[in-house]
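User: Hi! Is it possible to get a structure for several chains at once, not just one? Here's what I have:
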Amino acid sequence: MNPQERKQDDNQIDTYRRRLLGGGAALAGAATLGPGVFFTSVARAKPDDQPVSSEVRWGFLIDTNKCADNCNDCVTACEKENGWGSGSADEQHSRPDQKAQWIRKVTVRDKRTDHSMSLPMMCQHCAHPPCVDVCPTGASMKRADGIVLVDKHICIGCRYCMMACPYKARSFVHEDLEHQREYAPRGKGTVESCNLCVHRVDKDEIPACAEACEEKAILFGNLNDANSEIARRLASEPSTEIRGDLRLDLGVRYQGI
Amino acid sequence: MKPTTFREISGTSAGYYSLLGLLALLVASGLGAAYYMEHNGHWVTGMNNQIVWGMPHVFAVFLIVAASGALNVASMASVFGKTAYKPLSRLSGLLAITLLVGGLTVLVLDLGRPDRLIVAMTYYNFKSIFAWNIILYNGFLVIVAAYLFTMMSRAANKHSTKAGFVAFLWRLTLTTGTGSIFGFIVARQAYDAAIMAPMFIVFSFAFGLAIFLLVLFAGFRWTGRPLGDYLVNRLQRLLGLFVAASLFFVVVFHLTNLYATEHHEVEHFILAGNNVYSGLFWVGYVLLGSLAPLAICYLAPFRASVGWATTASVLVIGGGLAMMYVIIIGGQAFPLQLFPGMEVSSSFNDGVINPYNPSVPEILLGIGGFSLALAMAMVAIKIMRFLPLSLSNAETDPHFTAEER
Amino acid sequence: MKESRHTRQGFWAAALIFALFSLPVMAGAPVPDIPEAVKGDQCVEETGFMRKNHMELLLHQRDETMHRGIRTKKHSLKNCFTCHVVKDAGGQPVTVKSPKHFCRECHDYAAVQIDCFQCHTSVPGGHKTTGEKL
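Assistant: Yes, the chains can be modeled jointly so their relative placement is included. Here is the combined structure:
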């Protein structure tokens, strides 16, 4: 895209933003008529021709107390959904330390007390993502609704985002692939990571890992909607961010750590 | 002092063509290695999802840092008024350009998608220090080329001092940018330190001068041009000063880290680990790359000797590469601290020291970039007037003309 | 007049270039064998427009979908394959590995490299399971 086109696009975004704000005002008006109208309107799936909105922020609340040590269901579900690891016949040449992992189970043990626990680890969908800051081309990006993605069309494969991510959430594709899912493109020489199953979220479905967890340890929802289950639980129960000292304002929060 | 006469080297000897042929062969094998890596994908390299930057980056960062440092000799003359270095300014500017081109070539050829170089040039994220570096590198090439033009064209010569000043400021910014690639990484224990920017600037002084000296000595010895001990002595002491300054920054960097408890583990890993990084740090960088050249540059028996200055330069280059390896690879080998103080394990190498075995193609690519820089310089001094005819004491020592310093 | 001379020169240059490029056709060189769409008789835009501008539409749609989550079907790559699919003897859709693939027919002919399929699947619906061999 040349700069002029980009500028046009920005203008377009402004137009959309105005339209959205206008809509927001109308909704706010509706909210005065009846409680709950505002929130249900925003949380409903957006039409295909509408852009995602920053009034929504998607996230996870993960309860490690419910997460079993030897259970790998969320990982397997992600592999199957997005076509990596055991979900794909590709990556035959790559060594284990070169294969992609969008989500992984991490065992954490306190050396002093010997207490240990297990938890799923993936892209934390930061509000201030270091990967987005460092990306030279803007391929590493955050959508308005808080989902952090790689635009593989303009990723040059420099791997600076992998250096910058505090969570080791990203993988580099080390070889040619040919068995991609229709909705989950991935390919050699580009970086990838958990995209919060953006193709499902846009259809008003929940991410594959959250759906697969029988213990309901992974709760998905809109952090900005005070009426959503995730927001209500976050308001009433304690939760923490991993490496919260970095102040990245994560979209994924944990309980029991 | 007399005005310096610059002259092309004849470049017709068997030695010249053999050396150029050797360099061309190394460049070709580097390109072949890059093609092999890109065609197959990075699985053929030692790099992985933990060590994402490997041997190519060690060479590339070294060359880029050295490029800005190579310009220093010219800056000494134009910005700091050390006229003795004036005859060296042209070669200094030339090496600054060729070393940068060599380093960038390596960096670009290692990208996952080198075919998208045009994307890197057209899409900019201005918060990224990498994006800034792309502008800084391109700007550097243009500014140094302009600076060379003012030095070599009689008509533009009056602008030479101004151009030299701009080039000096630009190269300081450039190396700050290179150091900040690591300095701005908050996630990793081994990086995330503002001191990395000035540390890289001082590294650049030493690495750049070391390469400059090797090229200068080779060029003069093999063309039989006179090189007086006055200049050799000064350059040798200057190299010593830069090496000492580098060592000082390294000491301060590690002392600062050692003071903070949270950094004890990573410091132990780099400085006292039973691993290649501690070995490269102490033997490669401190002993051979710093203390040995310091002794050569300052102790009386080694003074004003082209042979010893050459030895010191080779040691500084080797030590510099060792230091880059420790910083770049060692910094990634140390595990990320997801849960500080806790023991972490997973299927994705969490909590373990990440292994890295550099592969042959990666090393060939790095050496190819080095060779490209030297080959370009060799060709340039043959077709244009970069090298002075003489650097005898009569040409360089102000006391020869009874002029006051 | 200077300008008219330029115009005349331009005309002859254009004529020469046209003649040169027509040579292969006149000589009976192969032309791309564009596969018929499997359904419908009208593309999402007029055929001539699509031949010339499909890349612009795809590029625009790509940025809209990636950056703003707009998922309209009309100009999406996915939608191309609902009609433009080539099947092999066994009735299976061919991947971009086959020179018969819809995109490759013209792109091979014009020697214009596309890298869509380094990441995107080249068959309708993509690969649903662990990777059946195609």
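Chain C has four helices and no strands. The interface with chain B takes residues 115 of chain C (CB under 8 Å).

User: Great, thank you!
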